[in-house]
Amino acid sequence: MTRALPRPHRDDLGIAMGGLLGGVVLWALGIHPRVVSDPLVLWHPAWAPLLPLAVTAACEPLRRSRPRVGLFVGTLALTLDTVTQGNVVTVVLYTDLVYAAVLYGSLASARRICWITGMLTVLGGVVPAALLRDAQALLIGVGIGIVAFAPAATGWVVRSHRDAAEAARLRAEQTALLAEMDRTQAVTAERSRMARELHDMVANHLSAIAIHSTAALSLDDPRTSRDALAVIRENSVEGLAEMRRLIGILRDSSGDLEPAATPTLDGLATLVKGARTNGLDVRLVDGHGRVPAPVELAAYRIVQESLTNALKHAAEGPVEVTLRQQDGALHIHVTSAYRAGDGPRAPGSGSGLAGMRERAALLGGSFAAGPEAGPGGGLWAVRAALPVDREDLT
């Protein structure tokens, strides 16, 4: 199945019609570049110049869609025009076909046309001058250069500028696309960070509230209920304060509000004290040295989330938190009693382990959590190793 030719451009049709009309007017007025007595004029009928004129004008609608075909047919027509009295408009239309073939044709074709027309210009001047031993024969090369090489060179210059502009436009689009991708990634990363912070700050308090409210409802003991309500109130106040502080930062569009102080490992003792208040038997072994701020925050949050999980899931027994720094990394080890089949004492989102794993991965560290054997029975262990000597953390 043959593919139909595209519809000619309106401007190309205008060039063809205008050129044909102008050439006919010059022919009617008897304006020709050669006279009948010229030895090159081999075809003498008065209407002869109209044939190459019509053929060249008919090639103009192909200047964009089929530029090589138009140039080939136009070259044959120009050759025919040289053996008649000729028509100036035929030559002008041919120069446009050369220009269009370089501008709209393939890159290889454009280079080939520029090279061929350049060689014809040189040979057209040098060879006749050498054979005839007449310097005026160089004018033949000048004529070929004006008719063929000059429009080809002009088309190459215009094509180069057009390609450069197109390349600049594509670069601008790629830059805009990359900027949008960076913005989207930044928004996604910030949302993930805020989700982790919100989970780590509030989950501990809400878990304690859920566990102690369950105890207060299930035990008919005024003292136990009073103690549980005290813990519930303390966690409610602290959780509400943290929520208000976080919401205030998110709502502040001017950036005037200062974010809450970033927790550090120096606050582990307070964190452990709060866990003991919530009913956990926690033992802290802190052997960390000086670590970068991102590592401190990640380590604090990992310990905090481990204690929250112990509060919700651990069996009766001690919880041990160990931090030690060696081999260029801060090692975190949190263990709690574990019995397979025990259900959680408080509902959870299930994102705690994922958040801890993300924090370790963002720092180039490692994370693992799962049951393991212990001296007193089954244990649930959380292990994380966070590098402390990377240059991008300082």
How would you summarize what this structure contains?
With 394 residues, this protein is of the alpha+beta class. Helices cover 61% and strands 11% of the residues.
Defining key terms:
394 residues; alpha+beta; Heat Shock Protein 90; 10 helices; 5 strands; rod-shaped
Please tell me about this protein's structure.
The chain has about 400 residues and is α+β, with helices and mostly antiparallel strands. The protein folds into two domains: about 10-175, no CATH class; about 265-394, 2-Layer Sandwich (Heat Shock Protein 90), CATH 3.30.565. It is about 60% helix and about 10% strand. The chain contains ten helices and five strands; from the N terminus they run H-H-H-H-H-H-H-H-E-H-E-E-H-E-E. The chain has helices at about 10-30, 50-60, 65-80, 90-105, 105-130, 140-220, 220-250, 270-275, 295-315, 350-360, and strands at about 280-285, 320-325, 330-335, 365-375, 375-385. The chain has a five-stranded mixed sheet.
